[in-house]
Structure formats: C-alpha cells, structure tokens
Write a structure and sequence with these properties.
It is built from 17 helices and 20 strands. By secondary structure, the protein is α+β, with helices and mostly antiparallel strands. Among the domains are: 92 residues, Uridine Diphospho-n-acetylenolpyruvylglucosamine Reductase, domain 2 (2-Layer Sandwich), CATH 3.30.43.10; 181 residues, Vanillyl-alcohol Oxidase, Chain A, domain 3 (3-Layer(aba) Sandwich). The protein binds flavin-adenine dinucleotide.
C-alpha cells in the first residue's frame, strides 16, 4: 500500500523500505515525525513555517556501504533525501521540507584513527565520544560545538561554523581545522570522494545539500586541564572589555570567552548559589596553569571570580560544562523557562569596542538582552552578539535588526531556513557546482537553497563560473 507521512511524495514507501533491507529503518509515523525536527523552534517564525514538515521514512545505515545502498535506492526512486546527525541545527537545516527519506548517521559512529594532531571519525560519531577517545590519548578537538553531547561530527561540519576553541583556533573553515573529509554522491553507483586542504570548504557548511559526508579528519590539539571560570562585573561594557582583554591576553591560553547580560543570568538557576546576584557574567575556559594570570586580569578589569572548577569538580557539584552557558546554549537556558524568548545573530565592529556596545544598548530596548561570543577570524579577535529577544511580533524583530544594522552591526538572519539566508548571505556557487556533480538529480536537501532552483539546469562548470570575481 502506498502511504506518505509528509503528504508530499508519491512513492510506495512500504516497497521502498523493503528495498532498503538489510539497512535498519524507522517507519512508525510518530518516530519519523520526531526525526523530522531540529532546533528551528528557537525561532517563532521558523516554528510556524516548519513544524508540519515531515519526512516519510528514516534509514539508519551502519557503514559506508549501507549508506551507498540507501543513496542508490533514493536515486532510483527520485526520493528527496535529508541527512540527519544529532538534529541540533538551529535553522531547520535538517527538516525534510520536500518529505522523503531521512538518513540518520548516528550508527556510523566509529573513531577510525587518532594520530599526532588529528582524529578521523565516521560522520555519525558523537562529538563528546570523540573528545573522550582523544582525551584518553592526550588530545582534544581544536574546535567543537556546545552541543557536543548530542551532535555528530558530520553534522557539525555540514551545519556548524565555530564553537568552543574558536577564540584561539579560528573558524572551522580556516586552513587546517578540517584536514579532510569524504563525501558520497547520490547516483546509481554512489562513490566516495576525498576533499583535502582548502577543498574541504567545497562541502563544509553546505547543509548536506552537495554530498553525504561519510568520514572527517579534524585537527586536534594537546589536551589541557581546563578550568571552567565564571567572573562577574557591575557593568556590561566592562564585562565585554574584560572579555576582549582575556581573548587577546598574551600570557593566558583560553578555549572559550563569552559575556552575558545580568538579566540573562537570572535564567541560570543552577548557578544561583555560585554567582553574585544581578551582575553581568563572563564565562571562560582557562588552563589550570594560567589561573594566576587569569585571576589578576579579572581583578585588573574590576571583576570578581565567582566560580573556577575543573571538569571533575563541576561534575562533583552536579553542574554542567560551563560552555552550556555559552553559544546557543545561553538561549536554550532561557527557553527552558519561557518559550517567548528567541534570538538574533549579529556581527560587531572589529576590533571589539566596549564604547560601541555601551552606546548601542539604550537604542535596543528592554526586549533585547545582549550576549557576546569572542572568536578569532582572519587572525583578529572578533565578537558576535547572540542576544535574547523577547518576541512580540515579526515587525518588532525586524525593527531590532534594523537598529543593529543602522549602528554598524551586521545581521545574519537566524529566522530563515535557506542556506543563502543566514551565515552565508549570498549563494555559494562552488557549493552548488559540487551539488550538480555529487547530486545530479538534486535530491539532497534541495529545498534549502533558493539559488539551486535557478541553476539546476546548468552544468557544474557553468554554475562554478557564476562565482563573483
Ligand atoms: C543549544 C545549541 C548550541 C549550539 N552551539 C553551536 C556551536 O557552538 N557552534 C556551532 O557551529 N553550532 C552550534 N549549534 C548548531 C548545531 O548544534 C551544530 O551545528 C551541530 O554541530 C550540528 O550537529 P548535528 O549532528 O546535530 O547536525 P544536524 O542538526 O543533524 O544537521 C545539521 C545539518 O547538517 C546536515 N548533515 C548532518 N549530517 C550530515 C552528513 N553526514 N553529511 C552531509 N550533511 C549532513 C543536515 O542535513 C543539516 O543540514 C548549536 C545549536 C544549539 C541548539
């Protein structure tokens, strides 16, 4: 019998499922619907658009050859395909807008090799597990997302951009951070192709629409005894200035520098006994041997070190990793208490300028509570604002964005599910040319690219040639 959970495909999914054997499948509608979601609900705008978009069937391959089998069957039936790792993406990246087959990678999870300065893992490897395997051998990932407990390494490379470690190691796309990756084509005979050096960026952050990542090799750095630090300050601009001082200190290593408005800290109940009430917060990871210099820096900047605990001490105190109060986890902590919160993604003037931050604050309004992440971009310390927004209407949201823009803070739209919409403001024709080569029928997550519809009829070379000079 033909059935379609999505209501968008005309495929006999029972027969399709039978053809996928021996690959594990999930066809129970409740479970398929669950695996059709990611963290798009952070955005009330995306929530309204995406909450009723579902796939039709889930496949859970255990190896590259099982993955190839899934892709061969999808190609044969012209079935739309969306890859899914941990499902922690923010913009509906993993939502199957056209229905079809969801391929969950979490059973392709082997750590293949650990060597000096690198780790190779299958795409579905859980990032925390990769880090644990690395720690045992004296290494750690140079960069990982704050979602490491759930996210996969392939999902991070396909959907993410930066994370814990970026303040010292830069963005994922920077040379050497992704050493190589393997991506598989969606054809009648799926083939794996290796991308190395700068070529990794032909696949990285393309939201899985131009190839199925099966394996990645990432840069690792020597493991250090990181201390989770929380320092508090009276004034937000002062907190931001301290963040910049730490992010650029010559004598203190750091893996995380994040500053949060005092009003957001009210939504961190687990930290209540540990932080001074009503103060602005700077969260950092600093190695044990640099704690003396860190304490002096905080004191010089007029702050107070309220919490400094090793990973073991945090676990003993039943506290989460400190990075669960940074990056998009900050928004999550607020959303746990009140679903009317949402967020924006904003760039800031470089070099970081505390005066620009304090001048902007009164213009933003009481429904905007700032939160900055510090990172290294093109060799310079930069900051991103991921403010909490108390959502009232889309009109007000766009007005806040316009205030940021008018004051020299570029907006990266967090409320759009198109790859051209948020981080990548313009179409990436190199990504799309590789889509043409790796996915000639346009089955992979195609609904997430506006521009794909315009160029799908061209050759890969014609698409590549559209890259602006
Ligand atoms: C609370 C919170 C905190 C976050 N913090 C960070 C952060 O610190 N840094 C950061 O960069 N992001 C962050 N994110 C976004 C997201 O968590 C990361 O990008 C994460 O690494 C995605 O991994 P995942 O396995 O969950 O991917 P998914 O959400 O499953 O997938 C993400 C995208 O990649 C595609 N994809 C998945 N696997 C493959 C594959 N094998 N081949 C091809 N395409 C694939 C999917 O189709 C989708 O388009 C955060 C999100 C939340 C909700």
């Amino acid at each position: 019998m033909t059935y379609s959970i999505s209501g968008k495909t005309n495929i006999d999914w029972a027969a399709f499922e039978a053809e996928l054997a021996p690959v594990e499948t999930i066809s129970e509608p409740v479970l398929v619907k669950k695996r059709s979601r990611d963290f798009f609900w952070y955005s009330p705008i995306l929530n309204a658009q995406l909450r009723r978009s579902f796939g039709d069937l889930v496949a859970v391959p255990k190896s590259a050859s099982e993955m190839a089998h899934c892709l061969r069957i999808a190609y044969k039936h012209d079935a739309p395909v969306v890859l899914r790792g941990g499902g922690t993406g923010n913009y509906g990246q993993a939502v199957p807008l056209d229905g079809g087959l969801i391929i969950e990678t979490t059973s392709m999870n082997r750590v293949v090799e650990i060597g000096d300065g690198y780790v190779t893992a299958e795409a579905g490897a859980n990032i925390e597990e990769v880090n644990k395997a690395l720690h045992a051998q004296g290494w750690e990932l140079a960069i990982f997302p704050s979602t490491q407990d759930i996210a996969t390494i392939g999902g991070f490379i396909a959907g993410g951009s930066s994370g814990i470690g970026s303040v010292a190691q830069g963005m994922l796309r920077d040379p050497g951070n992704i050493i190589s990756l393997k991506a598989m084509s969606v054809t009648d005979d799926p083939q794996e192709r290796v991308f190395e050096g700068d070529d990794v960026n032909q696949i990285h952050h393309a939201w899985g629409l131009n190839g199925v990542i099966t394996e990645v090799t990432l840069r690792t750095v020597p493991h250090r005894d990181w201390i989770g630090c929380m320092a508090t300050f009276d004034d937000y601009a002062q907190t931001y200035a301290a963040g910049y001082a730490l992010a650029s200190a010559p004598d203190i290593a750091r893996k995380l520098v994040s500053t949060v408005d005092a009003r957001i800290c009210e939504y961190f109940p687990r930290l209540k006994e540990h932080l001074r009430a009503g103060k602005h917060l700077m969260t950092s990871l600093v190695p044990a041997e640099d704690m003396g210099a860190y304490r002096s820096l905080i004191s010089d900047q007029g702050g107070s070190v309220d919490l400094a605990m090793s990973e073991a001490e945090l676990a003993e105190a039943k506290l989460p990793h400190v990075f669960e109060f940074a990056y998009n986890h900050t928004t999550l902590q607020v959303l746990k208490a009140d679903r009317s919160a949402t967020y924006l993604q904003i760039g800031c003037p470089t070099p970081p300028n505390p005066r620009a931050i304090s001048d902007l604050r009164p213009k933003l309004g009481d429904d905007v509570w700032q939160h900055h992440e510090f990172a290294l971009l093109d060799g310079q310390i930069v900051t991103f604002d991921l403010p909490i927004i108390w959502f009232s209407t889309e009109e007000r949201l766009r007005e806040i964005e316009a205030t940021y823009e008018a004051n020299g803070f570029p907006v990266y739209d967090a409320h759009v599910c198109m790859v051209e919409g948020g981080g990548l403001k313009n179409a990436d024709y190199t990504h799309l040319a590789w889509k043409k080569r790796m996915d000639p029928k346009g089955l992979l997550n195609s609904a997430k690219s506006r521009e794909w519809q315009n160029v799908a009829h061209l050759t890969a070379e014609e698409i590549e040639a559209m890259t602006p000079a």
